[in-house]
Amino acid sequence: MNIFLLQNLERPWVFVILIFVLVVSVALVFLKPKNTNFTEIHLLRQVYQKNTIWQFIFTLSICVISICSILILSGLYGNLEKQTIKKEGIDIQIVLDLSYSMIAEDIKPRRIDAAKEMLGKFIWEINSDRIGIILFSGKPFQSVPLTFDYDFLQDFIEEISVDTVAQSTNIELAGTALWDGLVLASDVLSRDYPEREKVIILITDGEANKWVEPELALRLLKQEGIKTYTIWVGKWEDTTITIPIGNFVQRILVSGVDEEILQKISNETWAAYYRADSSDSFQKILETIAQLEKTDLEYEVYTTKKTKNIQILLILFISLLPLCYIYFYKKITI
User: Fold this and answer.
1) How far is Cα 290 from Cα 294, in angstroms, rounded to an integer?
2) Please, which pLDDT band fits residue 188 given cuts at 50, 70 and 90?
3) What is the DSSP letter of 9?
4) For residues 305 and 309, what is the distance between their CA atoms, to the nearest angstrom?
5) Full DSSP string of 34-88
């Protein structure tokens, strides 16, 4: 089976099933043993020899129409259409902390769930800005490049958990590499369109315990002119979390946030620091972003043009009617 054909089908499983049914049907018809007691069979062949061309046309048409019907029922995509879209906005890089402390329940249901909920609401309010996502624990990862695909971003955020970064199986991925995440975000934002306004939204619940030099990260952010909004998810008091380790459960004390460093990051990058104890934090950021200078950006989108399946199927079957008439009423033998 051609894998490239299956990739162009909306319902590849329908294609496989119908092709199987077609192959079995053809096999039953043509491989069925032909028994006859008529000794003068050559006389019948002479009688119906003049209809051989109609027999061939009928059989070929049945095959072609069957294959076309299978492709249509399987949802074969039409031609790709390229559209050039222009949007006026800025580039936003979200840097989200996925360290184990994010499963603390001092903010219900959990810190990570509260952050995801507010982040989802924030993205629904965006309509012209490119957004990317960097996830980090002991190491940062560019998980979603800058994109206008807000539906994909929503789906991705919904699936995020502390297990998205495999820190339970790799000790090097555990921790809070906050500064590394900011350095990666700065690098991503500075790669293209230098004329566009750049913004980082850092969402974390604790202090960094693995890092590059903080001053290096701050210098890069200021050098690129990237405003970095910092949002703390959590409460002032220390709390505990439980982490399953094999057949055991380990309780770990989670300390409070390093509020001073978060304020320093936002102050030195001309942004602001917020506590995410309510949805007002993101709303304030939205209001601030709305006041930033917007820049036009053109990008190309490819969409598939679907055919009008019902109409095509109807035409195919109508075209079969004259052949059916010839076959059944003119007694063409197969």
Assistant:
1) 9
2) very high
3) B
4) 12
5) -----TTHHHHHHHHGGGHHHHHHHHHHHHHHHHHHHHHHTTB---EEEEEEEEE
Q: Can you read off the two tokens belonging to residue 126?
A: 């965006």
> pLDDT tens digits, residue range 273-308?
888 765 566 677 767 776 776 777 776 666 665 555
Per-residue pLDDT at 271 exceeds 80: yes
The two tokens of residue 273 are: 């620091």
The closest of 229, 241, 209 to 112, measured between CA atoms, is 241
Kindly report, as residue ranges, where domains of CATH 3.40.50.410 are found in the chain.
84-299
Residue the block writes with tokens 């050098």: 223
Distance, CA of 151 to CA of 218 (rounded, Å): 32
- DSSP string spanning 241-306? EEEEETTEEEEEEE----HHHHHHHHHHTT--EEE-SSTHHHHHHHHHHHTSPPEEEEEEEEEE--
d(Cα 96, Cα 135) in Å, to the nearest integer?
5
Residue whose structure tokens are 């069925």: 32
Residue type, 316: L
Residue 177 near residue 139 (C-beta atoms within 8 A) = yes
Sheet containing 140-147: which strands, arranged edge to edge? 140-147, 130-136, 91-97, 198-204, 227-232, 273-275
Q: Which residues contact 175 (CB under 8 A, 6 or more apart)?
A: 99, 137, 138, 167, 209, 210
Query: How is residue 224 written in tokens?
Result: 């690129």
Q: Is it true that the peptide bond before 109 is cis, omega within 30 degrees of 0?
A: yes
| Torsion region of 147: left, alpha or beta (phi above 0 gives left; psi -120 to 50 gives alpha) | beta
Write the class of the CATH domain 84-299: alpha beta
CA–CA distance, 77 with 304 (Å, rounded to integer):
6
The reply to whether the predicted model has a pTM over 0.70 is: no
Closest C-alpha to 123, from 87, 154, 86, 158: 154
Residue 230 to residues 44, 48, 143, 226, Cα–Cα distance (Å): 90, 86, 19, 13
